Amino acid sequence: MTDRNEDTERHRSEFVESLADYSRKQQAQHWAGSFNDYLRDIVADNPARAARSSHQYIWDMICWRGLEAPKQADTANRYKLFEDDLFGIDQALERVANYFKAASEGSEVGRRLLLLLGPPSGGKSSLVTLLKRGLEAYSRIDEGALYAIQESPIQESPLLLIPHGKRAEFRDSYGVEISGDLSPYTRALVDEKYGGDFARVPVHRVFIDEAGRHAVGTYAPHDPTTADIADLVGSVDLSKVAEYGDEGDPRAWSWSGAVYAGNRGLLEMIEILKVKREFLYLLLTLTQEQVVKVSRFPLIYIDETIVAHTNMAEFRRFLQEKENEALLDRMVIVQVPYTLCYTDEARIYHKLTSATPSFRQVHLDPHALAVAAVFAILTRLRPSERPDLDLSKKLRIHAHEEVEGVSDAEAERIVREQPDEGMDGVSPRFVVNALASAISQSESKSLTAMEVMLALKDSIDSDARMDAKVKKQWIDFLVTTRKEFYNRWVKEDVHKALFVSFQDEAQELLEKYLDEVEAVLENRKVDDPITGEERDADERFLRSVETKIGISDSGKTSFRQEIVRKALSTYKRGAKFTLSEHARLCEAIKQYLFQERRDVLRLVTSSTRADAETMEKISAVEARLVDDYGYDAHSAHEALNYVTTLLAQE
How far is CA 299 from CA 54, 106, 291, 294, 352, in A? Predict the structure, then answer.
């Protein structure tokens, strides 16, 4: 106990010291000086960095966080900004990144509003949040240093102080262009406080901060009948009118609108299509021309990236109105669907649940999240154009698993045959709510895959929003999940746990299969390892293995030739041909072993009056499930009982 207390004290002391060190570094990052100092000390070192637009700045931030080029031509880049939080939507993330890349290069894309379109709980808000957190972190390193006119209410770029008559000379001297004009407030400030001497205007380093409304603005719509455009662009501050005597004085204007908060950075528009039409025209004009117009003032230059998001229902209503066509032309629309890969979906659940104390106190069996994910994906898929391809096979294709009769090229076509797939179905929030309900009812602090499926069924039954037809379909998907996926997974776990020598036995069977196949293809005899005599190849054994994965009699030769080619290729590399070299043959060998041992499994797991030896075997299997396969005592016991029931039904 004493050692534990000492460790706790040491960790706390280290944290306090690291916090103090962080504070010192933050202070060291600040910079302030005159505009002349800024040109000499900051701009001269890297003019292009000082003149970056908001799109360039965001793209540089994404690159700073890192990206990994695809290993295959048909896959997307992986962006480290998103990889720990967003799963299974790589194509959407690639399109978002491409928007910023194209905009940073000065193309017309930069004059378009970025609209993220997708179902609820699909990751749209999380994507924007990651952009904002990335900008905050980037602004605190040297590469992302951002400077502004110190007294500007909208953190304007100091380069805007350079008069238009001197900008061509600046371009020739520094090699970069300056776009935009000072705001009315800052123009009046320079004239009145500094006598027009812009060289003396103070400049300081600023840090992007959503909470402080520095270079990040956020607008969420409320009641459309009472929404005021002042929330975006400000309004007259009546308390200051008496001080300055004129409503047209920029100092009497409230510069607190979300548009001004996002200047030099990003403005997030939540559920954008719920706002009034005048709001949309203002925002789209801002993206197109980089200016906003408010009463009593000339055009106000704003450099910011507008990222908006909305759901499908709002977007469909928006499409039905003819007058919205012009607005659509000024948007870059990126669909952010639900993931269709169940392994990625399970990662989403793990992320959502691992941060919750109630979930951390409960053990989930190794397939609990996977079965929920399979069910969710089934609700999002649509029937394939191929009549012989059911949803279970299509789900496996989306998870990059091999499916008999489907080549890699065909699998790629199937994945892309319905672009709108994943835009509806079960949301991660629905599943996590069902998991939370199951945990609240669990007395063992352990949740099995079967209990998860029962919790999902209860959630479907009690959901008043769904009609009876949808409920029946979703419950059928749960049945499919159990029969086509969970049954196979849990049987495999129990089988491997029961037979310690599984890998050795499986490898021996693999080698026997290869020997027999080579003999058949070469039309030669085999030396029997027991009698030493020559015999015909064991066709019965070969077929008993191959039928486990549905290899037909007409397709056996091509399958066998494929296996031999893979084996030869492996041997040429100087490696040993193992089960990992061919997923389908591995599955066939496992199923064959399981079938051979099923009677032993029944004996071990189903004895009503088990003797001491049998009980010892049962305990050993349960211990192996716990130690090697991610179960706890409760879920291991339930898995054994469930597999026993399955065997009794076969």
Answer: 19, 22, 6, 7, 45
- 42 to 34, 64, 303: CA distances (angstroms): 11, 20, 21
Alpha-carbon distance of 377 to 347, in angstroms, equals 13
What phi and psi, each to the nearest 5 degrees, are found at residue 206?
A: -120, 155
Cα dihedral angle (456, 462, 463, 467), rounded to 10 degrees?
Answer: 110
Determine whether 355 is exposed, middle or buried from the number of CB atoms within 10 Å of its CB (0-12, 13-18, 19+).
exposed
Give strand pairing partners of 218: 268
pLDDT tens readout for residues 130-184: 999 999 999 999 999 999 999 999 999 999 999 999 999 999 999 999 999 999 9
Q: Bridge partners of 204?
A: 32, 148
Is the pLDDT assigned to residue 432 strictly greater than 90? yes
Using the structure block, give the residue that is written with the tokens 């637009």: 53
Greater confidence (241 vs 628) lies with 628
Please give the model's pTM, rounded to 2 decimal places. 0.82
- Please tell me the predicted confidence (pLDDT) of residue 501: 60
CB 594 within 8 A of CB 495: yes
CA triple 483-488-491, angle to 5 deg: 120
Residue 155 — φ and ψ, nearest 5°? 40, 55
DSSP symbols for 240-265: HHHHHS-TTSGGGB---SHHHHTTTS
Query: Does position 438 have pLDDT exceeding 70, yes or no?
Result: yes
pLDDT recorded at residue 300 = 93
Query: What would you report as the CA-atom Rg of the chain, rounded to the nearest whole angstrom?
Result: 32
> Of 466, 434, 463, 465, nearest to 451 (Cα)?
434
Residue 334: helix, strand or coil by DSSP?
strand
Nearest to 562 by CA among 580, 578, 585, 579: 585
Establish how many alpha carbons lie within 13 A of residue 540's alpha carbon, considering only the half-sphere containing its beta carbon.
1
Residue 46: HSE in the Cβ half-sphere, 13 Å Cα cutoff: 9
Query: What is the spatial distance between Cα 345 and Cα 364, in angstroms, rounded to a whole number?
Result: 16
pLDDT tens string 188-215 = 999 999 999 999 999 999 999 999 999 9
